[in-house]
Structure formats: C-alpha cells, structure tokens
Specification:
heterodimer; A: 503 residues; alpha/beta; Rossmann fold; 2 domains; six-stranded mixed sheet; 19 helices; globular; B: 343 residues; mainly alpha; ABC transporter involved in vitamin B12 uptake, BtuC; two-stranded antiparallel sheet
Chain lengths: 503, 343
C-alpha cells in the first residue's frame, strides 16, 4: 500500500546509452523507493555500471526518462549529481591518498569560519562523530594512504552520510571484504535504510543480496528483465533470469586422477607475512587456498612464483629446486601465475588480445629478434578458440573486453607456456555467473589433463566446489588441511578465524 | 612517528604541532640552509656580517622565490610550468619598455602591469592544458619556446639599461625595511598569502586533492579544470611579477633574461619536498628550497669549490631530495599499512 503513496527516489525508464557503435545500455529501468535496499544484479556487461554512471553524472543518457526525487533529472557532471543528493561508492574507492581521512570526507564542502577559512576543529569533530556513528575506530587526522579497502569504503560511506545523500549506490562493495567487514557494512547499510534513505547494492554474491536487500532488479544484455520483492523470488530464479538459461552446475569439478607431487613447498617464511608454510600440490589436483582477505594467501602464491622474496624455505617443482625471486626461472620450470588484479598485473590492457596471449612465449615466437603480428595471431588463435574468448578479432584491445573475457585471455596467455602448475588468484572475482561456470569448467578440465592447480579464492562455495583439498590460511599460517569430504563451510571458517594463539 | 602517522589525535595539539614541525621536510631543508650559511660564514665572515653580504644573502633569492612559489602551486596539481623563465624575461623587458615609452609612470603601476601580463601568459598555458587535455610538460615546453621567440623578436639585440629606468624604481633593489630588502619582503608577503590560501581555503585544498589523484578528483566532482587553470594563471602572474623584480634588482633586461629559470624553479620545488607528482608538500618548503639553491651557488665559490662542482652539488641536492622523499614515502606507507587492525 505504501508503494502507491510514496514517491520513488529514483526512476529510470528505458534509458539507453551507446559509445560509438557499441550499445552499452539498451533499455535500463530501475525504480528505487525510499527506505529500501535495492539489489541490482546482472552478468558483467549487462549494463549495470553504465546505468550507475548515468545516475552519477559521469555519462549522459542518449534516451529514456530519468527522474530523481520526482523531478526530471539530467546531471551534466558528477558534482551536479552529488549536489542533488546522490552518492556513489565505486568498486575501487576513490580517495586522495595524501590527504587526511577528514579532508577526504569534506573536500569541497569543508565547514568555514567567518572569513571563509576552513574550520579544521569543527571538521575533525564532525568526522569523529561520523566514525562513532559508523562504529569504526579511525583517527580523523591520519592520512588516507595505507587504509584497508574496508576502511576506504567506510570513508566513502561517511562522505555519503555527511552529504546527507538520499540515494546511495554501492558497486560491488563487498568484493574485497572479509566476513566481519561485510557484517559491519551491512549494519551501516541497514541503519541508513531505516533513516529513509534509498540504497542500490550491486553484487555478484547472492547470499549477500538475499541477506541484505528487500527488492531485486535483474538486468541482461543492457536491458531490464524483472523487479521482485526479495521474498517472492529465489537464487535459482534470479540466476536463470540473469543468464537467460538455467545454470545447472556452478562448480563442476570432475574427479581427476591424482598423480605425483608437482609442487612441494617447505617451510616458506617471510617475516611478518607468513610462517612455516608447507604444502604439496599433485598433478590432477586442485588445491584451494582459503582464508580471510589479508590472511596472506596471495602473498604465499606470489612468493612461490617468485614475484616476492621470502626469508626462508624451499620451493620445489617436479623435484627440482626453484630459485627464489626469479619469476623467469619459475616460468621455465613450468609454473604459471594468474594474479588477482587482472587489469594491473595480468594484462597489457592497451595491447591486442593476440599480443596478450602470446606475451609470455614471445621470445619463442620471435624471428631474428623481431615479432610480427602475424606470428602472434597464429600462435594465439588455438588458445583463444579453446577458451571461447568472445572477442570480435584478436586485434581487439584487451581493455575493452568484459572481466570474464579478460580473465580467459590471461589464462590463455599462461596455457601457451604449457605449464605443469597453474597458480590462480581469485579466478572469478568480478566475473558474471555464466562466465564463472566456464572458468570453473576450464580449471576442472585442465586438472583432468594432469595439471596441478593452486587456487586462491575468497568465495567459499567456489573453494568447496572446486578444490580436492582445502588449505586454510590464517594470519600467515596454514591452520587446516582438509580433504574434499571434510571441507564444509563451518570447518573452513573455523580454521580461518580461530583466534586461539596457541593453535 | 607511528603515533603521528596513524593516531595523531592521541597527541596533544602542542605535541602534534611540535612533532609535526620537527619531522617536516621543511625543517630538514632549513637545517641544510643554516649549515651552508654557517660554514660559509666561518670561512669568510663577510658572507653574512657585512652590509652587502647580508643584503645579497636575502636579496638574491627574491626572484627565484616568486617563481618557485608559482611553480609549486602548479606542481602540486600534478602539472608543471616550464614557460616561467620566458614569462619572466618578457615581463622584465616589458618593464623597461614601459618606462621608456611612458616616462613618469608610477612604480606601482609597473608592478601591476607585470603581474597582469604574466597572468595573461598563464591564461594561455592554462587554457591549452585544460581544454586539450595534453600533458602540461609538453604544452609549457611549447609556450616556453614561443614566449622566448616572441621576446627575441621584440627585443632583438636591444637591451634595457639602468639609464632607462627611473631612480625610484632602481632604488627598490637596495632599499631595506628593518634590515630586510623590500624585494625580499615582497616575496615573503606573496609566500604568506599563497601559503594561507593553500592551507585554509577550499580551493587550496582542492589543488592538493587534484594532484593526489586526478581521476578521483574528477569522480568526486571537484572543479578540476577551473582549479588547474587558476594554478597556471597564478604561476604566470608570479613569474610576471618576478620579471619586474628582476628589472629592479639588476637594472637590465635582454632577450636572454630568465633563461633556465624554469628548471631552477622546478629544482627549488623538488628540493623543498614537494612531490613532483603532486598532492603533497608545502609552498614554504619550495621557498626554502629556492633560498637554499641560490645561497649554495653564492657559497660554493667562497668555500673554494670550482664551477664544475657547483652544478654537480645542485644535482646531488636534487637527487638526494628525491631519494630521501621516496624513502620517507615508502617508510610511511609501510607503517600505515602495518598499523592496519592494530587500533
């Protein structure tokens, strides 16, 4: 009944946006009521981000209606959207690292004394109140540099509150958060909702969507699909709407013959990061490295591959010592490493798909020290085809591809080196459901062919579904080595969070 | 140190201020300056303890002082202005021409003309940089040559001589108030004004924010273009002002006046602890950096160090500052990251 009376905070109908010949958004529709947490879900490339950026004033729509607080809106700049009361928290928080957290919150709107001088005392006091309200312990005078992602998001939320924003959009805010941090964020989100503000929550994690949101809008291929009350729908229903087909099996790890030891890590230690890390990975085996974000999983992987130095311990591949801190030797020995941050560490985003795929085997392709596009393309084709990389041409720039396709390109790049061990960090982070399943199928296939795979993942279902064995890392130590049969959400989370110092 | 970084609010305001100042880059560079001055004075007491020595010590940096202040405001936004030397030269020559063509013009008017003329050249820089979104390094490299070319065309082999300038104007170069040369006082007034703006005004803080992360500033909705434009105009205006000061101090101007000043200004800013990629540092640091640079050049011959080594010393100073800043930044980042979850 209230829905008939209350006016929606945000109303987008049939909004379209094209970039040149590429249509990013065909017919985006989103209606958000005040006092509601609204989930916006869809595969990557479904147009969610474009929709958000139109609301935020980053882009201007080509067609459709856009009403905010009941009035026609047309934000030419981000400043205009902000002034109207819209706050957007992007996936990667956008802070000024050199400035204090307080300045980050109040930039451009600092309280002034008479004479238009910034009133720092008032500003710090207000920031302290905001932090107290959000239940975080942050010194308002410290600089933003070095804050964890979770704290950076808290700063973004503090910004939004101090703006008195009536609409808060969060684009995958939980992607990099640990369990406690997610809970803290949700607590804040609920209290904002109870104040009558509207929130839009974009996420790929359905457990979170169902735990937090009251309404869910699904998008597919740049168009609106459906909007439902959360209690009237189910995960399966939403997933099938997102992909337009039933996703039968999210984590299809097929049994593979477990063979000899491929990777043998013993006593790996780096002061302050991880201690006495010892484990093995056999051929045909997928070993999952689970644990909270910041527990040291990625650091262990980076040390094994030789990106980072380590203080003590040995890494052996197929029985041979791999020299520390020499990624080139690791590659030659048969290791491959797909990093967590695809854009920054795994891809030359300005380069073509073919160049990216052949990046590691480049010297082998060169003739007399010269590398031709033709040689690159010829070498890249089989890999791109095998992984079903959906890109018009191998000449396409990697930057313009979706996250899922980028991930496939990175994997293809490493497969071209014929590795015996694949280390893959967060294989499906920020990847939509459909592509996720494809990445999982691919990993499973590779294991079936005898590759040893070390997989780091923050998504528990992914680890439990894919891994033959789960190693749990807590504060730099391996606290559990669980077989597939013994690995349950409870057993993994217990090992990841146990705070008994003697253990 | 950790307290100051991670939990500064735990310290009392006085403690915070004292530790903050003691730990600052400005103090470090000021100590170097004092050491240079003391060492040189021990060798030759007239370096400080003579009327001319004292005056030159304070007066010589006044030019670079102004240029470095303007340059700092541009650099803090992650830009650079290489045209300041040419702007200074044009403005110095213009000053002479104004006195020749309009005898009897008030001195104050000439200062205002120099300021406005420099600002106009800054407008050109600012417009091109903000409208075409091309790195300012390239743009101002272009205007550096263009402005210099205009000056060469205009001045040719002509020169402004002391006889072209009225005495009241030339006297500015030697006048002192309470033992401080007036041209140096002018620099200090500008320094205090700009320092106040950068610390206390919203616009000033936004300049830092833009330099700290330009993309975030854009997403944040800060008026990035307007601010960067303003920085270039201010920088040009101060270079123009410095041109008038140049004419008053040396009573001469040629088509080569101010050549190389742009690099000295960048050097002063970097030595003063301003990050070359913007976002941090203070205008006071840049001013002390300018002071140090000029003073070292004056001191080295007295200390018996040859000309070749003078340039090398400046180079070492720049490299040393950059390495030191990088080291401090890494340590700071490390400490801040380490402190996660401790509090």
């Amino acid at each position: 009944m209230s829905e008939a009376v209350t006016q929606p905070v945000l109303e987008l109908r049939d909004v379209a946006k094209s970039f040149g010949s590429v249509t990013a958004l065909r017919a985006g529709t989103l209606v958000v009521e005040p006092g509601s947490i609204h989930a916006l879900v869809g595969e990557n490339g479904a147009g969610k981000s474009t929709l958000v950026k139109i609301v935020a004033g980053v882009y201007q729509r080509d067609a459709g209606t856009f009403r905010f607080q009941g009035h026609d809106a047309d934000f030419a700049t981000t400043a205009a959207a902000k002034d109207a009361g819209i706050a957007v928290i992007y996936q990667e928080p956008t802070l000024f690292p050199d400035l204090s957290v307080t300045e980050n919150i109040f930039m451009g709107r600092q309280p002034l004394t008479t004479g238009r001088r910034i009133d720092r005392t008032a500003m710090y006091a207000e920031a302290e109140q905001l932090f107290a309200r959000l239940g975080v312990q942050l010194d308002p005078r410290r600089m933003a540099l070095g804050l964890s992602i979770a704290d950076q998001q808290i700063i973004e939320i503090a910004k939004a509150i101090s703006l008195d924003a009536s609409l808060l959009i969060m684009d995958e805010p939980t992607a990099a958060l640990s369990g406690n941090e997610v809970e803290r964020l949700f607590g804040v989100a609920r209290s904002l909702r109870d104040e009558g503000r509207a929130l839009v929550f974009i996420s790929h994690r359905f457990d979170e969507v169902f735990a937090l949101c009251d309404t869910v809008t699904v998008m597919r291929d740049g168009s609106y699909v459906s909007t439902d009350r959360i209690e009237d729908t189910s995960v399966t229903e939403i997933v099938s709407r997102m992909v337009g087909r039933e996703v039968s099996e999210l984590f299809p790890k097929t049994p593979a013959r477990i063979g000899d030891v491929v990777l043998d890590v013993e006593g790996l230690t780096t002061a302050g990061v991880f201690r006495q890390v010892t484990f093995q990975v056999r051929s045909g085996e997928i070993v999952g490295l689970a644990g909270l974000v910041g527990a040291g999983r990625s650091e262990i992987a980076r040390a094994v591959f030789g990106v980072d130095r380590y203080d003590a311990g040995t890494v052996r591949l197929l029985g041979r010592d791999v020299p520390p801190h020499e990624p080139r030797s690791s590659i030659r020995a048969g290791m491959a490493f797909v990093p967590e941050d695809r854009r920054q560490q795994g891809l030359v985003t300005e380069g073509s798909v073919a160049r990216n795929i052949t990046g590691v085997i480049r010297s082998g392709l060169a003739r007399a020290g010269l590398l031709t596009s033709r040689a690159e393309n010829a070498a890249a084709v089989p890999w791109a085809r095998r992984l079903e990389v959906k890109t018009g041409a191998l000449d396409m720039h990697a930057a313009t591809m979706s996250g899922g396709n980028q991930q496939k390109v990175v994997i293809a790049k490493w497969l071209a080196t014929n590795p015996r061990l694949l280390i893959i960090d967060e294989p499906t982070r920020g990847i939509d459901v459909g592509t996720k399943a494809e990445v999982h199928r691919l990993l499973s296939e590779l294991a079936g062919q005898g590759m040893a795979i070390l997989m780091i993942s923050s998504e528990l279902p992914e680890v439990l579904g894919m891994a033959d064995r789960v190693l749990v890392v807590r504060e730099g130590e391996i606290t559990a080595d669980l077989d597939r049969a013994d690995a349950t959400p409870e057993s993994v989370m217990t090992a990841a969070t146990r705070s008994d110092p003697a253990a | 140190m950790t307290e100051l970084l991670v939990q500064p609010s735990r310290l009392s305001p006085v403690q915070r201020a004292v530790t903050g100042v003691l730990r600052s880059r400005e103090i470090a560079i000021a100590v170097v300056l004092v050491v240079v001055v003391v060492a040189t004075t021990l060798k030759s007491s007239s370096f400080v303890f003579s009327h001319d020595g004292w005056r030159d010590l304070l007066l010589s940096p006044s030019l670079l002082f102004l240029v470095a202040i303007g340059e700092m405001v541009v650099i803090v936004t992650r830009n650079v202005d290489l045209s300041v030397g040419s702007t200074l030269g044009l403005s110095a020559y213009l000053t002479g021409r104004v006195f020749i063509d309009h005898p009897g013009i008030p001195v104050l008017a000439v200062f205002l003309i120099g300021l406005a003329f420099g600002a106009a050249l800054g407008v050109v820089n600012g417009l091109i940089v903000t409208l075409f979104n091309v790195p300012s390094l390239v743009i101002t490299l272009g205007t550096m040559y263009a402005y210099r070319g205009a000056l060469v065309h205009w001045a040719g082999s002509k020169q402004i001589y002391a006889s072209n300038l009225p005495d009241s104007f030339q006297n500015l170069g030697t006048q002192q108030i309470l033992g401080i040369p007036v041209l140096t006082l002018l620099g200090i007034v500008v320094l205090v004004l700009v320092g106040y703006y950068l610390w206390n005004a919203r616009g000033g803080r936004e300049l830092y924010a833009i330099g700290s992360d330009p993309e975030a500033a854009e997403l944040f909705g800060l008026p990035v273009r307007r601010r960067v434009f303003g920085a270039f105009v201010l920088c040009g205006a101060l270079a123009g002002l410095a041109g008038v000061v140049q004419a008053a101090r040396y009573s001469t101007a040629t088509s080569a006046t101010g050549q190389g000043m742009e690099l000295e200004a960048v050097a002063a800013v970097v030595i003063g602890g301003v990050a070359i990629f913007g976002g941090s540092g203070s205008v006071y640091g840049a001013a002390i950096g300018a002071f140090l640079l000029i003073t070292i050049n004056a001191a080295l011959p007295i200390l018996g160090i040859g000309e070749f080594w003078q340039n090398a010393v400046v180079g070492i100073l720049i490299l040393g500052s950059i390495c030191l800043d990088r080291l401090l930044a890494l340590r700071r980042a490390h400490r801040l990251i380490e402190s996660r979850g401790e509090s």
